[in-house]
Amino acid sequence: MKKHTRLFTALLTGALLLTTMAGCQTTSSSSAPPPAGDSADESLADDMELTDAAAEEITLPISEETIELSFFAMPEPIITSKMTGYADMAVHQEAESRTNIHINWREESYTDPKQKMNLMFSTGDMEDIIWDAHVHATGGAKKLLDEGLIVALNPYIEQYAPNLKRLLEETPGLLESISTDDGRIYMFPEVRQDPVTRSNSGFAIRKDWLERAGLDVPTTMDGWYNMLKTFQEMDMNGNGKADECFVSLGFGKASQALNNFSVAYGLIVGTDFYVQDGTVKFGAYEPAFKDFVAEMAKWYAEGLLDPEFSTQDATQFETKMTNDTGAAYYGSLSGNLGKFINARSSDSDYDLVPAPMPTAPDGNTYVAVNAFGKLVPHGAAISTTNEHIVETVKWLDWHYSEEGSILYNWGVEGQSFETVDGKRQFTDLITNNPDGLSTEEAGARYAGGVITQMPIVEDPDVFLAMKSLPQQKEASALWSTADTSWILPPVFFSSEITTENANIMSEINTYVAENFNKYVMGIESMDSFDEFYQQLKDMGIETVLANYQTAYDAVYK
C-alpha cells in the first residue's frame, strides 16, 4: 500500500492544479494551530499535508475541567422509542465520565433535518459539532469550508488525532471519502468497512401472506404487481375491502420508498445523481422515468399503493404495517423490520421476509441508497464558532482508540458485554433484557454500534449481534448483495458552481416531487410527459449534469 503521505500529496497536488481555495476560517481555541485556508496557494500544501510524524497521543481525561460542547444530531426512532434521546444512552454517559467532555444535544428529526441545519448555518448560531453537515447542508462540505462555517481539520489531525491518522494510513479510500478535491478534510467519519454494516434497509413482505397465496418472493416488477393484486383478491386481512397495499412513509411530500423501485427501469430516482459507465445521470431526466412513473400510477389507480404514500408520518406508516393493511414496504432493519415483528410477537402467523431489489434491465440487482456503497456514509464536522476545537478534535479522535471503539460498539464490560474465550459477546442485559426491551432497544440504551451517531469504525459482529431475529439476519445477508456500482462517488465543486447547482436543483427537486405525485395520482395526464422533460431542460438540468460530469471526470476518468 502506498504511504499515506504520498496519497495525500497526490490528491492535493492534483487539486491545486484545478482549484484555488476561497475564504478563511477562524477559531477562538487558544491552543489551536492556524486553520488551513488562511494561506496562499504556494503554502497551502504545507498547511494541509499529513506527515509521517506521530500525532500527540490522547490521555484521559481530555480536560481537567469539564468542557461543554453542543452537538447537532438526528437520532433514529430506535433511540427515541424508549428514551428521550442520546443523553439517556449509557455509552454517552460513560464517555463523559472518562473524558470530562459533556455534550449538550440538539436533536432534530432524522427524516428531514435540512431546513433546521441550513437555518443554523445561515444565522451563524452553530452548534460546536454537526453531524452529517456534508449531507444535509446546501452546497455540501466544500461550500461550508469556503464560507468559513466548518473547520478544515488537516492541521488538527496532524497534531492532535493519532487514531484517525493511523486509520487513514491503513484504510484505502478513506482519505478521499472525507476530503474535498482540494485536499481539505471536513469531518471525523463513521467508517463502515464491512459491506454488511452498510446494508441497513430494503424491501420486506408479509411472509405469511405469500405462503397463503402460494407465491414466491418477487424479483421483478411484474412479480410485485401480481403479488399485490393477489393479496387484494384473496382479501388477506379478511375485512371485505381491497385495502391490502404497499405502504410508504411520506417524506417532504414525496415517498421514501417508491423511488427504490426505479432500479428496475435502470434508474436511480430522487435528489441524488448517479453514474453508469462513466456518465453522470439524473433519474427524472431519463426516458425510462416515464415508464417507472406509469407503473406507479397503475398501482395507485388499482389501490395497490397506499393512498397516503406521500403524506403520512412514521406513526401512520407503522400502524398500517402492524394492523394488516400493509402487504409490503421499504424500510430499515431495526427501526422497521425488527419493530414490526416484535409488535406482533403474540401472533404466531404474522411474519415478514426480506425481498431483493427488483431486477434491472441488464438482469442485475442494483441499490438506490447511497449509503450502501459508501465506506463513509456519515460524519461529524466542527463549526468555526467552537471555542474548544483542539479538545473537540481529541474527543472525536478518542472514539477510534481501542478504548473508545470498544465502548461505542459494545458498551461497558461487565454490564452490556463480557469477554469469553477472547471473544466479546453481549450479556443478558442486551439479549434478554429484564425490563422487556428488545435486543435493539437494549443495545441502543446500553451499547451502541451503528446507532450511536458517532465517528467510529463499526464492528460487524456488533451489527449482527444487535439483530436478534432470524428475519433480520436474513435481510442483512440479502440486502448486502445488491450491486453498488451506480452510486456516485464523492465529487466537489467551486463555491460558484455549488451555488449554481443548488439554485437550479432546489427548483428542480420541488418540481419533480410535485409532478411525480400528480402523475401517480392521475391528476396530471401521462400525455404531458414531453412537457415535463422540456421543463427540466428549461430549468437547467443539463447545466447541472455538465457540472457533475466535469467534476466526476476530473477525479475518476
Provide structural commentary.
This protein has 557 residues and is an alpha+beta fold. The protein has 24 helices and 15 strands. It has helices spanning 4-18, 41-48, 77-80, 90-99, 114-123, 133-136, 140-146, 154-160, 162-170, 174-177, 207-213, 221-233, 288-301, 314-322, 333-343, 389-398, 402-410, 428-431, 439-446, 460-465, 470-479, 495-521, 529-539, 541-556, and strands at residues 67-73, 101-107, 129-131, 188-190, 201-206, 245-247, 250-251, 254-255, 274-276, 279-281, 326-332, 352-355, 378-382, 417-420, 423-426. A five-stranded mixed sheet has the order 2-1-3-13-4. Strands 6-11-5-12 form a four-stranded mixed sheet. Strand 7 (250-251) and strand 8 (254-255) form a beta hairpin. The radius of gyration is 24 Å and the shape is globular.
Topology at a glance:
Layout: H1 4-18, H2 41-48, E1 67-73, H3 77-80, H4 90-99, E2 101-107, H5 114-123, E3 129-131, H6 133-136, H7 140-146, H8 154-160, H9 162-170, H10 174-177, E4 188-190, E5 201-206, H11 207-213, H12 221-233, E6 245-247, E7 250-251, E8 254-255, E9 274-276, E10 279-281, H13 288-301, H14 314-322, E11 326-332, H15 333-343, E12 352-355, E13 378-382, H16 389-398, H17 402-410, E14 417-420, E15 423-426, H18 428-431, H19 439-446, H20 460-465, H21 470-479, H22 495-521, H23 529-539, H24 541-556
Parallel strand pairs: 1-2, 1-3, 6-11
Antiparallel strand pairs: 3-13, 4-13, 5-11, 5-12, 7-8, 9-10, 14-15
Characterize this entry briefly:
Helix content is 42%, strand content 11%. The protein is of the alpha+beta class and 557 residues long.
